[in-house]
Amino acid sequence: MAKTTAEIVAEEKKKIEQAKARIQAAMAKDNVKERKLDTRRKVILGGLLMDNAKRNPSWNRALIELVKKLSRENDLKAFEGYEIPPMPSASGENQ
Fold it and tell me: Which of 19, 20, 32, 66 is 20 to 30 A away from residue 94, measured at CA?
């Protein structure tokens, strides 16, 4: 028995919806990878800033200024109890 036009149309629409779902899943997977990479970059840069702030007065001043600019409550909570490294001596300026 041959399929009716309505059945053929319904099957093709189903295939289209399945293809759309696969595309969305692939895009979501790519977005997750990009967010993870973005987070990794931020952690690396944050570590670099904090490490250099211990050795270089200009980095230390920059860290102090950045922490002062925090305004979001959740961001501020992350720095509760955090002590900015003490200002290094001027001899560490060029490191």
Answer: 66
Query: Is 56:95 a contact under the CB 8 Å cutoff?
Result: yes
Residue 66's contacts (CB-CB under 8 Å, 6 or more residues apart) are 49
pLDDT (tens place) for every residue of the chain, 95 residues total: 789 999 999 999 999 999 999 999 999 999 999 999 999 999 999 999 989 988 888 888 888 888 889 999 999 898 888 887 777 665 544 54
How many CA atoms within 13 Å lie on the side-chain side of 54?
Answer: 6
